[in-house]
Amino acid sequence: MLYPFFYLIFTDMAIKEKNLSAKTVDNKADISSKRIAILISEWNEEITDSLFEGAFNTLVQNGIQKQNIIKTYVPGSFELSLGAQKMAQKENVDAVICLGCVIQGETRHFEFICQSVAQGLKDVALKYDKPVIFGVLTTDSFQQALDRAGGKYGNKGDEAAITAIKMINL
Ligand code: DLZ
């Protein structure tokens, strides 16, 4: 059957076209005084540390001061929601970037974590009226995660940073 074959090709193309890595923000509002918290999940830290590196460098390249980036670890992606809440409620934090990597295993743990984090981060963003960025990779394999953490599909940490700046400027 050809359907799955074409689906994979077009999905791949869509991912490449949507890759915001290495892009800068067009709207050059002064964001030098903005403070951004970055939360990093310790699970799959080889991946999440690369996501952090991408996010950090992209923020700095786009005008955020290094000393205005607050780096904090949480144990796993499930803990990103509470971590984001603690950061978002601080008056001097303008956006929270949440970085994690959940890899599909043999049990349904994956679904519960992914759904919980997506809902949790959305709830925090709306409650505190601040950008809370979902920089969580949800992949079938470690290789797929590597491909998106500085590999052939760029670095989703870069995208998370660009998204945070765009939302601050909104
Ligand atoms: C338990 C667990 C599992 C199985 N897999 C992942 C994962 O792939 N990525 C991730 O970020 N965290 C995982 N965790 C840990 C949970 O996020 C959480 O830290 C624990 O369930 C404790 O609340």
Q: What's this, in brief?
A:
With 170 residues, this protein is α/β, with parallel strands linked by helices.
Report on this model:
By secondary structure, the chain is an alpha/beta fold. It has a single domain (33-169), classed as Lumazine/riboflavin synthase (Rossmann fold), CATH 3.40.50.960. 47% of the residues lie in helices and 20% in strands. The protein has 6 helices and 6 strands, in the order αβαβαβαβαββα. The protein has a 4-stranded parallel beta sheet with strand order 2-1-3-4, with helices on both faces. Helix 2 packs across helix 6 (156-168). It starts with a helix and ends with a helix. 40% of the residues are buried. Ligand DLZ binds next to strand 3 and helix 4. Ligand DLZ is lined by residues 41, 43-44, 75-79, 100-103, 105, 109, 113.
Tell me about the biggest sheet?
Answer: 4 strands, parallel
Q: Termini distance?
A: 45 Å
Q: For the record, what is the CATH homologous superfamily label?
A: Lumazine/riboflavin synthase
Q: Architecture, CATH level 2?
A: 3-Layer(aba) Sandwich
Please, how many domains?
1
Total strands: the figure is 6
Helix count? Answer: 6
